[in-house]
Amino acid sequence: MPFDTELTRRLGIAVPVVQGGMQHVGYAEMASAVSNAGGLGIITALIFPEPEGLRQEIRKCRKLTSKPFGVNITLLPALVPPNYEAYAQVIIDEGVKIVETAGNSPGPVISKLKKAGCIVLHKCTTIRHAQSAVKLGVDFLSIDGFECAGHVGESDITNFILLSKARQTLKVPFIASGGFADGQGLAAALCLGACGVNMGTRFLCTVESPIHHNIKEQIVKAQETDTTLVLRRWRNTTRLYKNKVTEQALKVEQESKTGEFSEIAPYVSGKRGREVFINGDPEYGVWTAGQVIGLINDIPTCKDLVARIEKEAEDTLKERLALVKPAPKL
């Protein structure tokens, strides 16, 4: 039975599952596979060094799916920031109507997208940031709990609290992000007030994911304890897969006398992280993974994964509803 939530209605998707924008992963093949499966696939804009590369990827995705898909733009601190508004203009020019935003000071980009009639899903790790995003006119909030991969924020609040707080305080529909891998998780998120879920690490471990098979097998073997946090000292806390490089980075962070970021920079190089996904050596560099890594036990196609999540969620909601019994007549 198809789900009917604010997310499925507004985005035109069958299952309220969004593939998070992932660096080195969110290409057209990945996004189209998720969209064809009934969820919302996402192309990651900043994979491409220039906006023109994103334009070509959007056109490629259109050839691979007739279903809705979106584009992610994440605004992060950088010595030479990308031209975010140029990427946004490409999205607008190419007629993409769904955009996931995240990161710092997204106001100008969100304003540009909204003026063009785009539906904006903004990812945030605190209710305070969510409320600021509401003022910017976003359509959906993606509430990112401390369990998530990548940038976890500095508040360390897990989704069980964040989602309930969002339900109590927010007037804009929200998606649950961080810690979701199956239909039971989707059912729980819906019960806590979300209108869908966002999954990154789970989609990382699928047949269509453009990473080395060895890394997918490593995810299947991993436990929920196999991630670690780095860069807290610089208020850029990031959850990564726990390997030799992250342990070295953490040692530098904890023992550095100067606190200069240059001391840790070689260990957290994005270039080395990208090589992990290409060469298949999980110890070669840092790569992001959420605590949900401990719940992933196979490498399905996106079609099979989304169908399974849909069925599990439906069965779970029916089973839980059956716990409510009529009161006996006196």
UniProtKB/TrEMBL annotation:
The keyword Oxidoreductase appears for this protein: yes
CDD domains xref list: NPD_like
InterPro entries, per database record: Aldolase_TIM, NMO
Keywords from the named record: Flavoprotein, FMN, Oxidoreductase
Species of the source: Podospora bellae-mahoneyi
Any coiled-coil regions, as ranges: none
Top-level taxon of origin: Eukaryota
The keyword DNA repair appears for this protein: no
Stated name of the protein: 2-nitropropane dioxygenase
